[in-house]
Each structure stands twice: as structure tokens, then as C-alpha cells.
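User: Reverse transcriptase domain-containing protein. Structure?
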Amino acid sequence: MYSSTSPTGLFRVQPVCTASQQQLLAAIDRKVPADLQAAAEGSGDGALSDAELMAALAGSANGKAPGSDGVPYEVYKVFWALLGPRLCAAAAAAFAAAADAHDGGEMAAALPASWREGIITLIYKGKSLDRTELASYRPITLLNCDFKMHSGKAAHPNLVRSWSEDLSET
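Assistant: Predicted structure:
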């Protein structure tokens, strides 16, 4: 909940119809999308290759706001030869630690702190809305670009398998 005092009622706590909620949840397809499943099946070694990470970077748009580290995609693109191998090695270590911690329930804590934080900011919706009204803005979370590269469609195969298992249990 962002504002319980919003004049438009946005983000105000509302009663929930449990029957409708259950009907909606029952209708949701809990299967992992085919492209993610294919990535999960991949080579089976669980490592994110330099080429996969470069493909994720190539698919990211320039001019996007970076997260708390202030490093935009353009820096990674220009210095890829220097940063790429280091990012792959760091990701492999982080994901290996996360996979080891998965059974103990501390998976998220094994990932770098910078991957577990974001900056929440408000952006103006535009459309000649009154800039003095909270309802004229929407919240976004700025995440570090290195995290977004690792968590996109080229996401780590072992995590995709884990998501699939988690989705099938809910």
C-alpha cells in the first residue's frame, strides 16, 4: 500500500472476496513459459555463459535509469571485454551459493546485497495530469543493470527449475 490517503482511493485497503480470489488463482496457468523451460533444460551444467549474458545485455535498451550503483547498460556494453568474464564468474559464484543455500531456505541471502535492493521512485504519468496530486504518479523500482541482465530471459537455468517446482506446489 503506497498511500491510504489518496483522494482517488488508489492503494487503499479494500475487502477481498475470498471466493473470487480462489477462482482467479485456480484459473492461472502455473506452467513455466516454453522459452524459460527450454533455457532450464539447456546444457545442464547450470552455468550462465558469456554469450547468454551478452545476449541479455544486447537485448537491453540504452537510456534506462540504473539502480543504486548508478551503472547503466551503456557502461557494460562499452566495457564488455573487460567486465563480461568478471560478471559471469561473479554470477556463477552467486548462483552456486544460492543453490547450496536453497535447501536451507536462505537462497536470497546468498545473492549479492546489490541484487536484493532497489530504489523506489515515483514517475509522472503525464497526460496533463496535476503534478501536485499523488495519483498523477506511479511507483517504479530501479534495479541494478547487472542484476537485470542475470534475471532476464537468459536467467540461470537452476533457478528456472526451482521456479517451476515452486509454481507446481502452489
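The beta strands are 119-124, 137-142. The chain is about 45% helix and 5% strand.
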